[in-house]
Structure prediction request, 226 residues.
Amino acid sequence: MCPFCYIGKRNFENALAQFPYKEKTEVIWKSFQLVPDLKTQPGKNINQFLSEHKGISLQQATKLNDHVAFTARQIGLIYNFDKAIPANTFNAHRLSHLAKHYGLQNEIEEKLFAAYFSKGKNVDDIQTLVQIGIETGLDSAEVKNTLDSNKYTDEVRNDIYEAHQMDISGVPYFLFNNKHVVSGAQESYVFLETLEKSFLAWNKENPEKQTKVLHGQTCVPGEDCS
Prediction:
């Protein structure tokens, strides 16, 4: 639900595209709920929700969201806050953990963000989540069975507990190599600098093993020995 998370995601991805060691970089998404007790409200849009949640006028809420939407447009993201449905995201987080099991977490996070901010989809609706899962490459029956059960509930709660243990009170929050933090939707160059610094430290701690080969007489399958 955090509009800055989608912006931060895109800025990070732009940095990662420039990073020469991106193939050695693993991205893991963690769950975090801004309003864990939120009841999904399909009859409202996010401007109305923000007005009530913050105790400000609808005009003020709309103006705040318009400013965020303008920021998003600068990096190619389209936010339609007049269509965005206030929704509890717990099931969406469970879907993300299922996607992680198949190495599709980045892909499903992108579709969840787009569904919520751009397409006005209810990301607490099971059929909507099943469709997002199908579009990501997941099996529809497995997605539905997962969401109809309590599967990945513990994983979501453990992520949230871990965040609280680390005194994380807001998102986006990026942790690199368990050492360096980028908090907020920073510019791409900040992410790139942090990637470079983190990789340098990681590479020193995990040097590639060099195997020295001494060549001598050998036998090769299907050939004569020499």
